[in-house]
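INFO worker-7 received task bundle
INFO bundle size: 2
INFO processing item 0
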Amino acid sequence: MLRFISSAAVIFLAAETMADELTDHVRPALVTVLATGTSSGSVTEENTVQGTGFFINKEGHVATAFHVIKQLGPIIGGTLKLTVFRNDTNISSPAIIEFQQPDRDVLILKIPTAGVPTKPLTIANDAFNKIQPAVTRLRTAGFPFGFPFKEDSGVLNSFDGPNGPDQWLWVVQMRFQRGQSGSPVFLDDGQVVGVAKGTDDTEANGYIIPMRYFPLTQYVSDSAGQGRKVTVTARASTPELRVQENVQQFSDSSTSCSSAQRERRIQLPVGQELDPTSISFSVRNGSFVSGISIKDISNTGFTVAYVLKPQCFTTPFGQTISLKQANLDMSLAYKSRQLVETSGEKVIATGSLGVGDQVYLPEDVDIGSVKIDTIEPSGAVRTTTGNDLVTTGGANGLGLTVDRAIKF
């Protein structure tokens, strides 16, 4: 009995020591991602959201989930501010968006390299082939709200996520809390296989984004292939927020000998959104008007209300005469925003790719416009286009999988 307890204690202490070693390996590479932005609704206010992320290289690139910043909702252009807090400390760095793919919930940030940990987390490569549902145990660590640091573990349930557009997600027996989005999900040896996305309605299962959807060949040298330098470009539609300055002028007059209350509605064209903080006006012949106000402000327009003063005079004979003239000349200035789809060529991936590597194409990319330039170790250059690729195998040893991935 005593030997059994002692043996069990030794096993427990050994497992605890292994867990501590894994924590010591993972924790220095973790960061808290803080995003702030000014909402663009009728009431403007600064919103803040929080998530977790982790370093994937020594150059200051941080992997996290795109919905961490999407939670801000519509914001005024230019107000998005990203800050990365390193290893749950008060050491912070400004961050910029280096890569984003919203349809796969993928986001990579970049911070200045000073103070970046020398050992970012390792991305699993060959280990992917050994992962088995209902067998492989996965771990996670991050910074949920209310906790300075939290670890969890659970078995991989399935490679098939929920039905619908999120079917590409993996399902795990873990519950991710608010603030854990973007946390790494890794094996017992610390190799990262995915990124935490969220929890289902039953809170029994969690969903993770497989690391294969991140452009690892572009940012992680460990994923380099066999010396072939590859650049994948394509035409894609990119939403661009354009700000337009508008000036509108109008005149008004009255023949009444009493005050005249007037309103003028300014309605924006379809597709444009008003910046309510930008409305201003100027008046000529201001002595003929009073009580100017801006009201009924919405995303699509606003109303100008004003009062025209009486325009009468009395003759020496006691006769009242009304005047008809332009009593008011007003100039209105305001800004509007419009999301415009712009099409152009962009780099999808670049780096060293070997046999078996894959590059996933975003949903907004036209496959026919894809161009793949490959420089072999010998220096020979060859080009493959998207039209050369078919789902069962294509030209130059390349093929296109059913889930829009170029397989090398």
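INFO item 0 finished
INFO processing item 1
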Amino acid sequence: MLRPETVRRLASMGMFVLPILAVKIAAMLLGESAQQSMAGLAPPPPVDPGAAPPASVRWTPQQLTAARHVDWLKRQPFERSPLLYEEDHGITPQPIHTEAADPSDDQARLVLQAVMSSERGRTAVINGRPYREGDTVHEVNAVVESIDCATRSATLRNRRNNQSMTINVERPR
């Protein structure tokens, strides 16, 4: 008696061999008749390279405009992609002249760049650094009192004079 593992292996091998045997047996039985039927088929007609298509295609105005636009795009030189970061060593950055902010005005030195909310709480990105409610913004010695994602704002309380200030995310122009 064969072990169950051996029976399983023989059965799986048989599943792969059986279709091959079926094709071989069918070829032997049909033999010449199959080859003769294949030879009896008419060859495909020769293609005349100078012949015009049987029906001319009528392009819509939108299709013609799209084709002209694609041709125009093909002739355009490639520019730098805004999505690809490449360091440009040939251009020296020019300084930007802006009015200096009054150092006594703490709100002018703070820029709220983003507000986020997650399972772990709300976070505000102020001057490029993430802060949570209760964290201290050491640049101005202020504590983040609240972060409101709906209004995209953060309220800070100054530790020196106990004054409260609200900063907002600037909307893109």
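INFO item 1 finished
INFO post-check item 1: Confidence is low (pLDDT under 50) at residues 97-103.
INFO post-check item 1: The longest strand covers residues 112-118.
INFO worker-7 idle
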